[in-house]
Amino acid sequence: MTRSLAERPRLTFWFEFASTYAYLAAMRVEGRARAWGVALDWRPFLLGPVFAAQGWETSPFLIYPAKGRFMWRDMARRAEALGLAFRVDPPAFPVNSAPAARLAIAALERPEGPAFVRAVYAAQWAQARDVADAGVLADCAREAGLDPAALAERAGALRPRLREHTEAAMAAGVFGAPSFAAGGELFWGADQMEDALSWAATGRLAPAAGQGDDPEDRP
Amino acid sequence: MTRSLAERPRLTFWFEFASTYAYLAAMRVEGRARAWGVALDWRPFLLGPVFAAQGWETSPFLIYPAKGRFMWRDMARRAEALGLAFRVDPPAFPVNSAPAARLAIAALERPEGPAFVRAVYAAQWAQARDVADAGVLADCAREAGLDPAALAERAGALRPRLREHTEAAMAAGVFGAPSFAAGGELFWGADQMEDALSWAATGRLAPAAGQGDDPEDRP
After folding, report:
1. Which residue ranges form the domains of chain B, and what is each CATH number?
2. Which ipTM score applies to this complex?
3. Which of A175, A190, B78, B198 is most buried (CB neighbours < 10 A)?
């Protein structure tokens, strides 16, 4: 039975273009949400103010080297398993993602929004292009079927939104990216995307491996 | 085909009794390892020195309140989904887990070791008992079929081992608990236990939801 858009359960997807793990989620979330019958609210925000509130002046992956080494390797093997290209040599880390986030807010007023988000993530993490660069972002807009000049103009008009989103994320308890919110529950990390969708759709977590009929099943 | 113990792939399970998420892994890892045909090396270690090396004087869940709030709620819903009792009111957080870890090292010389580890985790997280208390630990030993006095004596003889394990963990790149290591790869968090087992058994990650024959499958 197909439910109308208005009836479908909703999931808020909090994302930040500078986040590696958000890339894994952003490239797959639309297909997975469709599979679960969940409508998505895409919410670009900035991690900078969130990290600053925790006393960090940059990415925790730079502040804590062991965690950083783990993340780059974990990203490489995870991206490969998901069939996503991933380059560990971005032109800057963390990138200044504010320009891309402002354009995304404007793009997400239109049906092309998710395609623009994926184009920016692919430019940043699959192609190692500099998504702080206006020319790169214009290419992403065209790739998504949007007019770069019109998009930039609308982004200018919506400029305060990005700060509002970031403040809303912090008020919702978000402390990293990607995060997901449904039914008063917060989920953190690409590893919890499926749980978040399951919670939105059914009010409970996705079953763990070994939780089916056979407790010793293999996936 | 059943393989002999010597032929089976191995996974190192790094755990710390003070860690909430390690509880979720420790209670399930033996059954899941059996399902995957993987032999386990149980490695108790202390997070204190690991955190100190990152500049933290206590648990990051206390230093970063948003992360702490998330963790307690995430633990409660995850434990419930796994059918594990979990109390959010332990007598101390983080608990002084060194006495329990020293006894675990001695217990793990014997077949009763994993049962002792589970008894301590259950005392700490399901029953909110103080596992820094020698009487509580003696109860855990008896529950696992071990003689508390003999176990304490052996733990005394093996006392330097705990520091050696902790140093080995740091050398292996461990920065949190639970962690898993197999074939030169490190995995972090109860959410990655299945991936770690899959890597040990097959050299690749467990398939993600939506990665099977039908890209829109639901678990």
Report:
1. 10-202 (3.40.30.10)
2. 0.91
3. A190
